[in-house]
Amino acid sequence: MRCSLLRPDPAQRSRLEEVHGNLVARIAEAEHENWLGEIEGLRVSLASAKDKLTQVDALVERPSVEVQLDMPSFSRHGGTAGTPRPTS
């Protein structure tokens, strides 16, 4: 959850919402029980969960773009790859 490089899968949005809800409940419990050391870590995780939900929403809203990649041509470089050079 906290890994900033992890790209969330839009299909997992409901799971992220569940995690978010659980974190909110755990923070409330930690505050009620006065578990001060636990609260800050849970808040960091909650902020990460919110960020992942924002990323999922952005992925869903962004239109997919298809990019056409052509095969490279080696003819302009004086030969093709894998062709042995004559020795003199």
What does this protein look like?
This protein is 52% helix and 0% strand. It is mostly helical and 88 residues long. It has a domain at 10-61. The longest helix has 26 residues, at 36-61.
For this entry, give a set of tags.
mainly alpha; 88 residues
- Our Rg estimate from Cα atoms comes to 25 Å
Number of strands: 0
Summed over residues and divided by their number, the pLDDT gives a mean of 84
Quaternary state of the chains:
single chain
Task: Report low-confidence residues grouped into runs of 5 or more.
Answer: none
- Reading the helices and strands in chain order gives HH
Number of helices: 2
What proportion of the residues is helical, as a percent range?
40-55%
From the N-terminal CA to the C-terminal CA, the straight-line distance is: 62 Å
Estimated structural class: mainly alpha
- Main sheet makeup: none
Percent of residues in beta strands?
under 5%
Shape: elongated
Summarize, please:
It is built from two helices and no strands.
Describe the secondary structure blueprint for this structure.
Elements: H1 13-32, H2 36-61
